[in-house]
Amino acid sequence: MIQTAEDKIGDPDCSRSVRETARLNAPCIRTALGSATSSVSGTFRQALDRLGIDDYVLRERVILIHAPGTRFPTTKLDVLVVSPFGAFVVMAMQLRGRVAPGPDSETLSVFNEEREAMLHTSPLRRQAAAVRCLRSSLLQHACPVENLAVAAAIPCALHPLLPESILEADELYHYLRLRTIRFFSSRQRHVSVARVVDAIEGRLDSRPEALDEHCARMFAPRPR
Questions:
Q1: Is 146 helix (H, G, I), strand (E, B) or coil?
Q2: Could you tell me if residue 115 is left (phi over 0), alpha (psi between -120 and 50 degrees) or otherwise beta?
Q3: What residue segments make up the domains of the chain, in order of their start?
Q4: Which of 105, 123, 165, 168 could in theory staple to 91 by disulfide, Cβ–Cβ 3.0 to 4.6 A?
Q5: Is the pLDDT of residue 17 over 60?
Q6: Adjacent-strand bridge partners of 101
Q7: Residues contacting residue 156 through CB under 8 Å, at least 6 positions apart
Q8: Between 193-201 and 128-137, two packed helices, what is the crossing angle to 10 degrees?
Q9: 215 or 6: whose pLDDT is higher?
Q10: Can you tell me the distance from the alpha carbon of 76 to that of 129, in angstroms, rounded to the nearest whole number?
Q11: C-alpha to C-alpha distance for 185 and 64, rounded to whole angstroms
Q12: CA angle, residues 42, 141, 92, in degrees to nearest 5
């Protein structure tokens, strides 16, 4: 049955329904994410500590205004990290089962215990607008911005051909270690964490009701 499911992922009829299926499987992340987000942020802190990086700022569950004046002006970021070697937009990915590449770069296929596949919007796609916004805002600060997703559900097995920025928790340290080596070997100037955080603050909606308003927009019926 798994072979049938995997074959179906690449079927043209399946591709045509990718966006609709993914939309139905991608509601506003709100309720159960508290512990998942805390787990991922804790793993990120541990990795930075192992690297000897103590000059960083880590924020959980922030609302970024990436497209003011539009119907969907905000994105919810599970974890946002600013370090001397760049900023990281991190999603706590709560997909259970075997996670594999989907029929296109915007989707993932997830196989459950019955070996049936469902399509989900890729976490990298869901954060893409926020990442573009931050890259544009931080260009003058020479601050790289990376888009990450860290598995926060158990069980979750990641296919080896997934993008390298979709990680299991125990892969995060090695990922950041390589990024640290790459950044400092290029002899780039260290990112000013304080200045970058100040620049990002101007893009955040820190009001107590910001999360509720964001989720209400995401759940609102779409006009026909």
A1: strand
A2: left
A3: 2-214
A4: 123
A5: no
A6: 108
A7: 93, 95, 96, 97, 99, 168
A8: 120
A9: 215
A10: 11
A11: 31
A12: 25
**First and final CA of the chain: distance in angstroms?**
37
Residue 79 CA, chain-centre distance (Å), reads: 8
Q: Which two tokens stand for residue 14?
A: 């399946």
Show the tokens assigned to 1: 């049955």
* List of E strands, 25-116: 57-65, 74-83, 86-93, 97-101, 107-111
The phi, psi pair for 78, rounded to 5°, reads: -65, -50
Residue 216: count other Cβ atoms within 10 Å of its Cβ: 11
Distance of CA 61 to the CA centre of its chain: 12
What was the pLDDT predicted at 33? 53
Please state which of the ranges 80-84, 131-135, 187-191 shows the lowest mean pLDDT.
Answer: 187-191
Q: Which residues pair with 86 in a beta bridge?
A: 83
The whole-number pLDDT of residue 224 equals 64
Q: pTM to 2 decimals?
A: 0.82
pLDDT at 104 over 80: yes
Tokens of 81: 């990290």
Cα–Cα dist 196/123, whole Å: 24
Mean pLDDT computed over every residue of the chain: 85
* Enclosing H/E stretch for 158: strand 156-158
Task: Please compute the mean of the pLDDT values over residues 57-86 and round it to a whole number.
Answer: 95
Q: Residue 72, Cα to own-chain centre: how many angstroms?
A: 18
Residue 30 scores a pLDDT above 60? no
**Mean pLDDT computed over 2-6:** 35
